[in-house]
Amino acid sequence: MKQAARTGIIIAAHGRHYLAESEGARLQCVTRGKKTNVAVGDLVDLTLTSPDQAVIDRIQERKTLLYRSDQYKSKLLAANVTQLFIVVATEPGYTDDLVSRSLVAAEAAGIAASLILNKVDVTENLARTRQRLEMYTAMGYPVHEVSAIGQLEHAVATLAPLLAGQSTILIGQSGMGKSSLINLLVPGADIATREISAALDTGKHTTTFTRLYHLAGDGTVIDSPGFQEFGLYHLSEGMLERAFRDFQPYLGGCKYYNCRHLQEPQCAVLEALREGKIAKMRHELYGQLLHESAQTLY
Ligand SMILES: Nc1nc2c(ncn2[C@@H]2O[C@H](COP(=O)(O)OP(=O)(O)OP(=O)(O)O)[C@@H](O)[C@H]2O)c(=O)[nH]1
Ligand SMILES: [Zn+2]
């Protein structure tokens, strides 16, 4: 039998099992060897092994790659996305640590980032949450307010234009309403998810894998499982300081060209911190990330 070569896009990943879309068909895919370096959103060269199965021969060059990492391993979140939406909510509470880590990852990967404040119909914490989010608005990150349950049309009218023509990944802590938003934006997403889940043989764990949906117009949306931690072990010191958007106006203003902005004299970043132009939480996170990257594995 002559094997057919073709290209596809990875629409779901679960462990070493991948699902690709190619020429209108869904194909269960495996990698050659033990490779697990394929991400949702990857464009891949495939060899068909049966009408609905294929082997991934090659990953095409990526425009972007968003990932987390610790000293042991990397976790690829998505390839070729143009923007990141971080979903937060009035309740349950979100942590600035995870939001900021996500923003740093996006900056380092050259991906635009915005925040989506969901559940604005829950008015109890609304004022306080808005106040907390001002930190990000001040850095230039857009914050869009929606309610996936209370104001469906408004939510779609707000988000659909932002998604058009883009490849967007939604991330957020569990319970922020990410799935509710996806279901609003992608009619039939829950059915598609069940089909993908069946194809990947993940049983009932429908929310434990990353998947890509096509939007009605031009554009794709990637939904990823909620997460508790976001390691950025892969970022070097130089990458880290540049990935803090609020540091950028001050970089180059320090006395020492190799300033690490931790305790050096005449450090422009520390000066901005003292003046309240950089939030204490952000500088602490920067120090923590430097510390984490310095952990070497023996
Ligand atoms: N009041 C209110 N509740 C919402 C809204 N959006 C989602 N919820 C509720 O919040 C809970 C969590 O929503 P999900 O969409 O499952 O959240 P998720 O972020 O996908 O959570 P995981 O699946 O755990 O990752 C559900 O009970 C939703 O009904 C909203 O705009 N307002
Ligand atoms: Zn400095």
Please name the defining characteristics of this protein.
single chain; 298 residues; alpha/beta; OB fold (Dihydrolipoamide Acetyltransferase, E2P); Rossmann fold; Ribonucleotide Reductase Protein R1, domain 1; 5-stranded mixed beta barrel; two-stranded antiparallel sheet; 8 helices; globular; binds guanosine-5'-triphosphate; binds zinc ion
Compute the gyration radius: what is it? Answer: 21 Å
CATH fold description of the largest domain: Rossmann fold
* Integer average pLDDT: 91
- Count up the domains: 3
Note poorly predicted spans: none
| Structural category | alpha/beta
Pattern of helices and strands? EEEEEEEEHEHEHEHHEEHHH
Largest sheet, in brief, is: 5 strands, mixed, barrel
Number of strands: 13
Biggest sheet strand order reads 1-2-3-5-4
Strand content: 25-35%
Provide the helix percentage: 25-40%
Quick structural summary:
The chain is built from eight helices and 13 strands. The protein has helices spanning 96-109, 126-138, 152-163, 178-185, 189-200, 237-243, 268-274, 280-293; strands at residues 5-14, 17-22, 25-31, 43-50, 53-59, 65-69, 74-79, 83-89, 112-118, 143-145, 167-172, 210-214, 220-223. The radius of gyration is 21 Å and the shape is globular.
